[in-house]
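Appendix B, Record 12. Input sequence as logged:
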Amino acid sequence: MQAIGKKAVEKMIQEYSSNPQDIICCICPCIKQCCFEVEEEVKDLFQKEYADLDNIDKIIQKGEIIEGKQKYYIDTTEINRQLLKHIGLKEENIIDSGICTMCHSEQFHSYRVDKESSGRNAAIISLV
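Logged structural output:
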């Protein structure tokens, strides 16, 4: 819930007078909704933080009850897409890799799969 993408764009606007309509954002491989399983307390944090986003019931979907605990699946990619659109990025300038690092942990690092032995992924940010 750090909204790093949004903060980066805000910094680009403040520091470099960037026009958000000219910014292109690529959402790199990350954990996707199919694998971002959380319990009630994390779901509540996301629901409170992002209550004003469109389609919050699609962003936070109810899963199964496992060992007596209700599970939820959160779409952080959609959260980031909406945050970026709200600060002025064009929909067509937000490009999602569509790759889930947990589903493809043989190609990408995933803390949820590898725990403490997990490596790190990187991002590239450039001003031109």
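Residues 99 and 113 are 15 Å apart (CA to CA).
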